[in-house]
Amino acid sequence: MNISRSFLIAGSVYLIVGILFGAYMGGSGDSTLTPVHAHINLLGFTLMTLFGLAYRLIPGLDEGLLPRLHFWLHQVGVLLLLLGLWLMITGKVAETTIGPVFPVLEGAILLGVVLWLVNLVRRA
Ligand code: HEM
Ligand code: HEM
């Protein structure tokens, strides 16, 4: 698995979805989805593209288990967090039901970033 390529492609898929959300919000005047749009673009496109570029540029950074754990923790955490946020904001799932799941997903993303930092300290 090529971590850099996977992060870059996933990031740009998020960008397309983020732009579609933005276009819908701008067109409809409905800005309730702003947090979802913002984090699709920021946790999705911006961070994933930055990770993808760094894994390509820094020699050895993409080797071993840490980059793979980072990739999957970020993918699963971000996807489920944004999906959950969308379900909550649109009222499809009650805040009391989905609320307790958010810290778990945030923890997964955070753990991925800690592994990223450990890897950077070792190899950057
Ligand atoms: C064609 C593409 C885009 C469109 C049409 C669009 C549209 C919008 C709209 C309508 C809002 C809500 C503004 C409001 O009601 O206050 C918004 C907010 C936001 N957008 Fe976009 N957007 C686009 C691309 C992006 C991209 C690429 C990023 C980041 C990389 C981004 C980051 C944000 C952020 C952070 C906010 C929240 C700003 C705040 O808190 O006031 N957007 N966007
Ligand atoms: C798991 C990670 C993250 C969590 C849990 C989180 C959570 C939040 C929350 C609760 C808000 C306030 C939303 C509101 O009041 O409506 C917010 C706003 C914001 N966050 Fe994050 N955030 C995360 C990651 C990031 C990252 C990585 C960036 C930038 C690269 C970022 C940029 C922003 C911006 C620009 C806003 C204001 C946009 C808005 O009004 O929705 N966040 N975030």
Question: Can you walk me through this structure?
Answer:
With 124 residues, the chain is mainly alpha-helical. It has one domain. It contains five helices and no strands. Helix 1 packs parallel to helix 3 (65-89) and helix 2 (34-57) runs antiparallel to helix 3 (65-89). One protoporphyrin IX containing FE binds at residues 18-19, 22-23, 25-26, 31, 34, 37-38, 41-42, 45-46.
List the helices and strands and how they pair.
Elements: H1 3-28, H2 34-57, H3 65-89, H4 95-98, H5 101-123
Bound molecules: protoporphyrin IX containing FE (2 copies).
Number of helical runs? 5
**Can you list the ligands bound to this structure?**
protoporphyrin IX containing FE
What is the string of helix and strand elements?
HHHHH
N-end to C-end Cα span: 21 Å
Overall body shape? flat
Structural class: mainly alpha
Task: Pick out the low-confidence regions.
Answer: none
Question: What integer value in Å does the Rg equal?
Answer: 16 Å
Tally of distinct domains: 1
Number of strands: 0
Which percent bin holds the helix content? over 70%
Report on the biggest sheet.
none
Q: Kindly report the average pLDDT value.
A: 97
Strand content: under 5%
